[in-house]
Write a structure and sequence with these properties.
The protein is α/β, with parallel strands linked by helices. Helices cover about 45% and strands about 15% of the residues. The chain has twelve helices and twelve strands.
């Protein structure tokens, strides 16, 4: 059996799901709940088995994981497929000079997989230039604006029950690039605002402070299922998505746009150049975040109007980029 193309990931991610659907590729989110290094072995075996069974002409894989990208680079020649790596923003450029073994291995695999893959897809021109300078071929494609639909427009998720005032949702993963402490400090100082931080907080330093934070109007929601997540954003007045790193487009910003919510985003060139409407831009400091949220609440209807006025143009622009990448993929695969 030979399939034209499959999309493989070791982490089920909205970007991968949306793009696989757009391209019409069969989507395989391979998962394992085991300890990290055993997980790598199990997922490597699952990946090899999938490739052997499907025998595709084209494989697109998500990076992260860089290990998945490396595994497929090894499998390319014996199984004779074209490999496209959807790298989006996973470069960790701030750690390039690190002496840590972890980062030295990461950057070795990073450069090697860029050279060995047929195409690397990223989210902005700066990262495309990085790929080209490292000996790879690059194409730019941002996330597709997802088709998020509330389960019931009037539904209030349980996590919001009993909380008064304006609702602000902060889409977080507790990643190393996110100013979580500054976001929490900003939320704790705001009156008549209930702030919700999404994502798994249980293994972070904030886990033991959950009750204390709730008393100051900051609520750690933990991981939410799709229905609760979408309904929380839908019932919020403002959506906050922040990163301390340049050249990174935050996935949560697309989700906020999809539900036509005013955004508070990081004041970086990459973000301002793409999310150029419907947003207030802030530095990753508590006072700036607080002022940005307050401004977004004041300008809520104006920002919503900007989003509605520009949504068709951003979708049209994305479609053009998508068609370009599709043609490049087909060229390499044929």
């Amino acid at each position: 059996m030979t399939d034209f193309a499959i999309w493989v990931t070791w982490e089920d991610h909205r970007r991968s799901r949306e793009l696989a659907e757009a391209f019409g590729f069969e989507y395989f989110p391979l998962e394992s709940g085991h300890w990290r290094y055993l997980r790598y072995l199990i997922l490597t075996a699952k990946t090899a088995s999938l490739v052997r069974k499907k025998r595709p002409r084209l494989i697109v894989c998500q990076n992260p994981s860089v290990v998945l990208a490396a595994v497929l680079c090894f499998l390319k020649r014996p199984f004779n497929f074209c490999l496209v790596v959807d790298r989006h923003s996973n470069f960790k450029l701030q750690s390039l000079g690190s002496k840590s073994l972890k980062w030295r291995v990461f950057h070795f695999l990073s450069r090697w997989t860029i050279k060995k893959s047929d195409l690397t897809v990223v989210t902005n021109s700066y990262l495309a230039n990085v790929v080209e300078s490292w000996g790879g071929r690059a194409a730019v494609l941002q996330d597709r604006i997802p088709g998020l639909i509330p389960s019931n427009p009037e539904r209030i998720p349980d996590v919001m029950a009993g909380n008064a005032g304006h609702a602000v949702t902060c889409i977080t993963t507790y990643g190393e690039d996110e100013p979580i402490g500054e976001i929490i400090a900003a939320g704790s100082q705001m009156e008549n605002v209930s702030m919700y931080l999404t994502g798994r907080y249980q293994k972070t330093e904030w886990a033991t402070a959950k009750d204390r934070l709730s008393s100051s109007g900051v609520f750690l929601t933990g991981f939410l299922n799709e229905k609760d997540y979408v309904d929380l954003i839908n019932k919020s007045d403002v959506v906050v998505v922040l990163t301390c790193w340049e050249n990174l487009l935050t996935c949560g910003a697309y989700e906020g746009l999809a539900l036509r919510k005013p955004l508070v985003l990081s004041d970086t060139e990459a973000i301002k150049s793409y999310f150029s409407f419907g947003a207030v831009y802030v530095e990753p400091e508590a006072s700036a975040i607080q002022k940005g949220i307050e401004e977004a609440l004041r300008r809520k209807y104006d920002l919503e109007g900007e989003i509605n006025d520009n949504m068709s143009s951003i979708k049209s622009s994305w479609k053009e980029s998508f068609e370009h990448v599709r043609r490049v993929m087909e060229k390499y695969a044929n």
